């Protein structure tokens, strides 16, 4: 099933992007936390990572590929949202 506002993107792809982005981000944060680089409060971290993954998924699904590639917008928006939500 295609997204109603972007016929080039599908619901399955968007759900996959959210889930994979969320799980990979949590895995990386856990890895670096286990190595002692920083300490995290995990309930708070899960909420922030879910927010970042959701925003990245929404940006990736927008029909703006002709204007700017989503390989540029997704990392940029993810960095900004991460910096604002985590405060680093």
UniProtKB/TrEMBL annotation:
Write down the membrane topology.
Multi-pass membrane protein
Q: Which GO terms describe its molecular function?
A: phytol kinase activity
Q: What is this protein called?
A: phytol kinase
The superkingdom listed in its UniProt entry is: Eukaryota
Record-listed E.C. numbers:
2.7.1.182
GO cellular component, as recorded: chloroplast membrane
Pathway it works in: Cofactor biosynthesis; tocopherol biosynthesis
